[in-house]
Amino acid sequence: MKYELNDKIKSLSPYSVDKQTYKIRLDANESFINLPNQIVEQLKANLDEINFNRYPDPDADELCLAYAQYYGLDRKYIVAGNGSDELISVIFSSFLKKSDSVVVLSPDFSMYKFYAHICECKVLDYPKCNAEIDVEELIEFCRVNNPQMIVFSNPCNPTSLSLETSQVKRVIENFDGLVVLDEAYMDFDDSSLIESAAQYDNLIVLRTCSKMMGLAALRVGFAVANEKIVSALRATKSPYNVNSVSQIMATTVLKNKKYLDGCRKRIIESRDFLYNALKPICADNGVEVMNTKTNFVFIKSENAALLFEYLKTKNILVRCFGKYLRITAGNENENVELVKEIKMFFKGDAVI
Ligand code: PMP
């Protein structure tokens, strides 16, 4: 065989997901709320409108309009993607050139470094201090290193912490390169810059329908930015990136404002329940629980890996990152069961 894979992809392995069946899955920051029958019936009726032999609308106009209306934005500042993940990929491959540098914070969403690698860009790693971002230090880091781009999630996956709007603005206003502000979890917080995104000449705000809206299966995300950036994104994305089924289904759900507002409320309640239930258990056992502005709770424990394995034996899957566990807020029964098992683990009654 003559053909060789190039060095940058030779040793890559596919994104790995635990495909085993678990009674309780709290590992991927998904919503615990599946669509109610009433909306599923609307979706089924809308399927009749699709011409399956035709390509989708390349601009996803109806979808972007419904998104704009839900958040009170102007449609012209919005581009739809096949999940925000696709938009991250498009931004890295088109707004950066080979050997450009990008500031990525640690820890943060793992795909940023992955796409930087694929684009052969240099990653400038900015380590957070105990999961917190020191904005002035970050600004100085960017000033000294002069990267073309900085990307970070706010609120952050996996730390669950959030920066205030004024702090994020300081980063944007003190940096000459492009700021990619990933607001995947911003529906659970209130420090979004989505409404002022178009006023900046160097900002892209990313959002997703996969979290609060509970539409992870559809793969729909959005970029919000000024017109110059939006037309560059339109020019660089693949033409029919969001399929017709996802366009029509996400549009239908976005028009159900009352339903979505209810989802946000229920998920925040679930997250607060989980946080408040875990806090005393963690305090008694020397485990740190971060504040949370997301739909998950992030804890730090020397026993994280053991606890992770113990929960698996109880048919509960969470996410483990070294000494940290990230636990998605589930429905009431799931949360109660999880808390019971964590309590058991720390009481020392756990058998692994
Ligand atoms: N950004 C962050 C911070 C995320 O956590 C995720 C999903 N886990 C994404 C982007 C990707 O979301 P999507 O489903 O829209 O591709």
Structure description:
- With 352 residues, this protein is an alpha/beta fold.
- It is 40% helix and 16% strand.
- The protein is built from twelve helices and 13 strands.
- It has helices spanning 7-10, 37-47, 61-71, 83-95, 111-118, 135-145, 165-173, 227-236, 244-254, 257-284, 304-313, 332-347, and strands at residues 24-25, 78-81, 101-106, 122-127, 149-153, 178-182, 203-208, 221-224, 288-289, 296-300, 316-317, 319-321, 324-328.
- The chain has a seven-stranded mixed sheet with strand order 2-8-7-6-5-3-4, sandwiched between helices.
- β12 (319-321) and β13 (324-328) form a beta hairpin.
- α2 crosses α9, α3 (61-71) runs parallel beside α9 (244-254) and α4 (83-95) packs parallel to α5 (111-118).
- It is globular, with a radius of gyration of 21 Å.
- The relative contact order is 0.16.
- It binds 4'-deoxy-4'-aminopyridoxal-5'-phosphate (PMP).
- Termini separation comes to 47 Å
What is the C-alpha radius of gyration, as a whole number of Å?
21 Å
Biggest sheet descriptor: 7 strands, mixed
Low-confidence stretches: none
Order of helices and strands: HEHHEHEHEHEHEEEHHHEEHEEEH
